[in-house]
């Protein structure tokens, strides 16, 4: 049946695999590949994610490498935007093409009913390989050929039928821009990998997220029918059970620290891997966090204490009359003891220095929901 792992034991394994038990000296590319990408629906979230995980993380150097196309942002797991290495982008993207196609059919089937989707995709390819465009711009260009459709739906054809990469300056350190796209192949100058299967993700997922269940794996990637994929690799994996009897899989050499191992406080952005990568998030999402945040289906930047989500935070870099002053608001779900507040203020001061080095800093406390 396998050893039963407690909620705290799973928590310790998770924060260790997610590089949150201690900051590591990994190169950013090594870390991003270990984590199988970083969800970055919010374009700059990869900076906070990596700062919380890497020793001496240099956002300027990372941004320069991002601009050199060593990293790229595109739709992958669950059809959401992730930052991955260029190598992983070419390998992972083909795995999600069928998922993206199904989403297009489900969300825009009616306005696209009379559209030749393959022709629209190739017209989109020609447009964005001439110059990067927003999906809105693509839709406006295509509506001339399919006037009975809608520009928003036509713009989504390229998002779901082509491998589309968001181009810089979006995602660069302390810079921004509209979400313009070109094809991944054009952006990187390489073809997508052929004949890839989900098997390539199995060991990587469990190394970064294990011990975890098949349902966790499926929730993380958005694909289905993966039980048979995991079964093919049973000989390479070891098994456990959680407190509810659910079978969990893991790589044999995966670290599983003692459940009483101390865990430092951490500030994490919205949609961080540590809580988005599971069907059952109880291993990191505290009961009060579930009541305050996830039941409302709203995500915030969060902080952890003892490895569990204990509250939300917000960083205001200051504009207008507050220009030059950066304020970090820390909002626990319920009042925290002084022993927890002190390390949060210390880590919060470092977060302020990271994001607003030249500003005056202030930390204010409140309660989530106030």
| Main sheet: strand order | 2-4-3-5-6
Helical proportion, percent range: 25-40%
Determine Rg (CA atoms, Å).
Answer: 22 Å
Shape: globular
**Which H/E pattern describes the elements?**
EHHEHHEEHHHHHEEHHHHEEEHHEEEHE
Profile the largest sheet.
Answer: 5 strands, antiparallel
Q: Name the average pLDDT.
A: 94
Taking the alpha carbons of the first and last residues, their distance comes to 46 Å
Number of helical elements: 16
Task: Produce a short descriptive summary.
The protein has 370 residues and is an alpha+beta fold.
Written description of the protein model:
By secondary structure, the protein is α+β, with helices and mostly antiparallel strands. The chain has a domain at 285-365. Helix content is 39%, strand content 16%. The chain has 16 helices and 13 strands. A 5-stranded antiparallel sheet has the order 2-4-3-5-6. Strands 9-10-11-12-13 form a 5-stranded mixed sheet, with helices on one face. Strands 1-7-8 form a 3-stranded mixed sheet. Helix 6 (97-108) packs antiparallel against helix 9. The longest helix is centred in the C-terminal third of the chain and has 18 residues, at 338-355. It is globular, with a radius of gyration of 22 Å. It starts with a strand and ends in a 5-residue tail after the last strand. The model has no long low-confidence stretch (mean pLDDT 94).
């Amino acid at each position: 049946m396998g050893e039963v792992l407690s909620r705290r034991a799973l928590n310790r394994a998770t924060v260790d695999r997610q590089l949150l038990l201690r900051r590591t000296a990994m190169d950013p590319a090594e870390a991003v590949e270990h984590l199988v990408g970083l969800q970055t629906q919010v374009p700059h979230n990869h900076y906070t994610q990596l700062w919380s995980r890497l020793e001496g993380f240099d956002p300027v150097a990372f941004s320069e490498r991002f601009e050199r196309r060593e990293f790229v942002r595109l739709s992958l797991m669950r059809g959401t935007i992730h930052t991955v290495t260029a190598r992983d982008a070419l390998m992972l993207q083909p795995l999600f093409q069928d998922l993206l196609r199904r989403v297009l059919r489900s969300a825009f089937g009616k306005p696209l009913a009379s559209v030749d989707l393959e022709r629209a995709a190739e017209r989109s390819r020609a447009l964005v390989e001439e110059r990067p465009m927003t999906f809105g711009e693509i839709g406006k260009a295509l509506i001339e050929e399919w006037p009975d459709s809608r520009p928003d739906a036509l713009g989504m054809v390229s998002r779901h039928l082509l491998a589309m990469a968001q181009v810089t300056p979006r995602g660069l350190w302390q810079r921004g821009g509209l979400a313009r796209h070109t094809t991944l192949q054009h952006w990187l100058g390489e073809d997508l990998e052929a004949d890839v299967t989900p098997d390539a993700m199995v060991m990587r997922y469990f190394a970064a997220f294990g011990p975890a269940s098949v349902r966790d794996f499926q929730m993380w990637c958005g694909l289905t029918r993966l039980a048979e994929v995991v079964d093919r690799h049973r000989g390479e994996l070891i098994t456990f059970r959680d407190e509810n009897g659910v079978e969990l899989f893991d790589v044999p050499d995966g670290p599983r620290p003692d459940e009483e191992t101390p865990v430092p406080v951490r500030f994490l952005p919205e949609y961080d891997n540590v809580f988005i990568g599971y069907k059952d998030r109880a291993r990191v999402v505290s009961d009060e966090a579930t009541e305050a945040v996830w039941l409302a289906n709203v995500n915030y930047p969060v902080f952890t204490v003892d490895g569990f989500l204990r509250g939300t935070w917000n960083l205001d870099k200051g504009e207008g009359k507050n220009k030059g002053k950066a304020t970090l608001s820390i909002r626990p779900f319920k009042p925290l003891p002084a022993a927890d507040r002190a390390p949060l203020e210390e880590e919060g001061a470092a977060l302020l220095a990271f994001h607003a080095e030249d500003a005056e800093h202030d930390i204010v406390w409140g309660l989530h929901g106030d």
